[in-house]
Every structure is written in structure tokens, then in C-alpha cells.
Design brief:
heterodimer, A: alpha+beta, Alpha-Beta Plaits, 2 domains, four-stranded antiparallel beta sheet, B: mainly alpha, Na+/H+ antiporter like fold, 0% strand
Chain lengths: 180, 400
Amino acid sequence: MESAAPASADTVSGVGVRIEKVDLPGIGTRHDIVTEDGRRIGIVSHRTGERELAVFDDVDPDACRERVSLSEDEALALADVLGASVMLGQLAGIREQAAGLFTEQLLLPASSPFVGGRLGDTKARTLTGTSIVAIVRDSEVVPSPTPQTELRAGDTLIVVGTRPALETLARLLADGTLPS
Amino acid sequence: MHGTTLLLIEVGALLLALGLLSRVADRFGFSPIPLFLIIGLLIGEGGMIPLEESGEFFAIGSEIGVILLLLMLGLEYTATELVQSLRRSRRAGLVDALLNAVPGAAMALILGWGPVAAVALAGITWISSSGVIAKVLRDLGRLSNRETPTILSILVIEDLAMAFYLPVLSALVIGAGLLAGATALVIAVLVALLILYLALRHGRIVSALFSPHHAESLVLGVLGLTMLVAGIAQQVNVSAAVGAFLVGIAISGQVARSAEIVLSPLRDLFAAVFFVFFGIATDPADIVPVLVPAIILAIVTMATKVATGWIAARRAGIALPGRWRAGLTLTPRGEFSIVIAGLAVAAGLQPQLAPLATAYVLITIIAGSILARVPDTDWFKQRMLARRLPARPTAPAPAG
């Protein structure tokens, strides 16, 4: 994964990863990913919406050792978790690459005027120049929240911005005012 | 009045017995088809329990059973899948046809049954049972395995080949001769290509007749259209079964998915009736003289099927254990072999074909279901390991 070329933010995913798609007539499709250390993971998508996650055997390369059936909701939840963890990894990358840019986790206090409102209400991007890239709620992660995403007490916002901008946002979230 | 009462009692008792047997078969992980055939043998013609009133019901029900079996098969595949499988696995399909049809034809000729019966028996030994095999793959958790697409595409090609094989056979068995057979083939090819073209380019037109959200109209409408087309196909000697298969392919998208769901209980009912009726029409006493040929044929063609799967999997870059899995899974013959035998016998061709097909299907399904499980045994895995591991230490041995 290390590359000599100046890395841009989105090199973390998609480099050298090959996904193979195979049709299963009458059943659905299977997608395969072979990892760097040679392990193969397959995902069977049934037409009925059911998914099957298969880990292939390393002795017999064509058989799977372990299979997990996932309902449509479970598959979605798993995709979310994977997507969010990949994104957090990318953020860590940004922190190293771009000097002066920081990632911070800000807790939305119950006393915040924005609790129960929508993310767009904070006008965070316009007012502070920061970018809210994910919201962690309980154990769930909402990646790339939209202005319509609801805010609740206890949400942790993952924010990218310069140090002063992040401080401004923390103040804004706490009591709805901007430091003058 | 008395007749109707007796009909209810006979059909009711039989269906109840089938239901219980199907549960037993499921418990042991086997297809219920052999049990249905055996029940059919026990009753009716030459069996222990004669049927008084329900013979006609089973005769008509079995016709509908064939149509529904083929319709569901057509619904299961999309036109795109058919075309892609044909493009990718032509060669595997050809090897499959050669290896498995030839022994059947040869056996018919050895038995002195003549060329038309040879064509029929070739079909009986050629086509694997997609129903049994799909269930085995699911039950043994092999859907995600890498050899599975190879198995499925062989099944798809066989099923598609039936669309051309059945019309030829129907023309041949009614004694219409080669010219009529060729005409039927040309018609079948043209109709099948037309349907495939329509399904690929204008699939929405046929599907637009039905709403996927209205179960009642979907059952009635799709079944009606299928029986209508099947009847017309029969009239022009293209075989009702092929008409039903093509309707299944022409219906696509959400309508096909919903039709599959609402029609599968009907298919289960009438397919069971079909297998029982085939058993009813066969006299168990006739099986004894054809038992030896059936066993020989089963052993030879199960071996050739294993070879077919093995070769196709190797071509697809599958390792040794996967090749064995592909080959062993493909061995059971089933619904199609019975459909072909039924077609031939109904037209008055070689009466011994029915008992032979019955015995043959019974043997291949039972043996095939056991064989498909062999690669999961510790014995098999150890054998495969033993073959792999010594290869490394022994390689440098000759040098030293």
C-alpha cells in the first residue's frame, strides 16, 4: 500500500483490489475479494435479498470454510460499519498528510440548542469552515451525514478542520453562539 | 355421487401419504422424487392397491405437472443468464452431451429397441436433474463455492438444450419421420430464438400483462398464458413442455420473481402428481427384466457425468477437490428423464422404456445424493491432503 507518489486522500481504497463478479444462474451473483495475504472472501447475493458471507478455505481454495447468512438489514449494517471504519482510517491519513488539518470527535451535549434539530441547522460548514464527516450514535456510525440528518443528545460528531475552526464549532454546538 | 366421494378419498389419502413421505425425505436430506415414484409403482397398474376413480385426475394432473415444472425452470433463469451461459460454457455443454447421451443411445441399440428409442434414451441419460442438484447445493452449503457456477452453467445449457431436443423427439416418436422431425426442430429453433429475442429486448411487454403485487391475478394469468401457449405448441408438434419453458423465459423481472413465489406451491402439488402418475402407469413387474441394463446404464452414465463435471471444473481453473465436487454433484437424473420417458411411452414407443427410466432415475437420485456428500467426509479430505502434501517432500527425492 505504501507508494512513493504523493498520495491523495482517496488512495486508501481501490488500489490493487480486484473484485470478481460471477453469475449464479437461477440464484443470484457472487462477488469475490482476494486479500493481500491470499485469503478469499465471497459474498453471495441471492435474488431474494438474502446475502451470504463466505470465508474460503486455505487448504481447498474452492470451498468455503465458514458461511454466514445475512438478512438485507444485517448486510446493510455490516456495510455501514465497514464503510465507516474505512473512512476513519482515511481521516487518520489526512491528518498525517495535510499539515494544519485536524480530525476531532465532538460530543453533542444534551444542553445544545441543536439537539432534536437537523445537521443543516448548525450551518457548521458555512460558519466555521469545518466538515462533519460522520456521526457516531450509540454503537452505530452514520457515514457522510447530510444536512437532513437528525441530531440527538449524546451524538459524537467526527469533524475535520483547522484547530481554530474546530474550537469555534465546539462552542457553536455547545450554546449556539460564535466566539466574537 | 359415489364416484366423486371415492375420488376425494383416493386423492386425499395419496396426497397425505406423499406429504408425510416428503417430510421424511427432507429429514434425511434426500429428494422426495424416488419415494413418489415408488408410491406410484405400489398403486395402480400392476401394483398392490388399485385405483378406482382417481386415474383420470392423476393423468390430467401429471400433464399440468410437466408444464409447471418447465414454466418454473424458465422463470428461474433470466434471458441474459441463458445467453451468457451459452456463450461461456458451450464447450462444457457439448462435452456433457457427448459423454452422457452416447451411452444411453448405445444401450437402446444394444437392447434392439431401434433408433427412435435410442434418441429417447440418450435424452434420459443426458440431462441431470436441476431440481435435485440445486437443492443439494443449497443443503450442503456449496452456493458460495467456486465450482458452483460451473455446475449451474452446465445445468442451464442442458435445460436450454431441452427446448430443441423435446420438439425433435415429439416429432420422431409419433412416427413423423426425419423430415417432420427436422421441420419441428426448425420451428422450435425459430420460436425459441424469437422468444429469447423478445425476452432480452422487450421483456417488459409480456411482463406488463401481469402485476407483481396482485397474487390472484398473477396465478391465474401466468398459469392461463402458460397452458394456452403449451397447448398451441403441442398442436404444432413443438411439445407442450417447451412452450411452457419459453413462457417462463419471456416473463422477466419483478413479475417473474413474484410468479415464482405464488406458483411454487402449485408446482409442488402437480409435480408430485406427475411423478406418482408415472409410477402408476408403470407396472413394477416390468422393472425386473430391465433392472440389469438400468444398473449398468446408471453406473456408466454416473461415471461419465463425474467426468463431465471434472473436465468443466478443470477448465474453469478449479483445484482437484472442487473438480470432484462438481462431478459428483452432477450425477442425479430426475424430472427431465421422466418427462422424456413419459413422452416416448405415451406415443406408444417401446413400452420397456418407462420401467427402465424409473429404475434408472431411482438409482441415480439415491446414489447421486450419497455421492454428492462424499467430498464433505473426512476420508475424502484426508485423501486430498495426502495427495497434496507428499508432492513436495518426494519431489527432490530422485535428485538425492
